[in-house]
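MOLECULE: protein
FOLLOWS: sequence and fold
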Amino acid sequence: MDLDFSASSLAASFLFGVIGLFLFKKGKSESQFDWLIIGIILMIYPMFTKGPLSDWGIGTALCALAYFRPFT
């Protein structure tokens, strides 16, 4: 596994990791399975992406999914 330690990658990992932790805790306390899963994915996905465009794009899409929550 080739890890990317650029400033953009580290910033995206930190920002979306914090948001993921918040969603995980909120989903666990309110028994919202969708927020729980999106929170876990937000905390893990930066380890598997390569490049700033994929880091920020996937993170933004997952945050939008959590915000608009098409499934309840």
Notes: The chain has three helices and no strands.
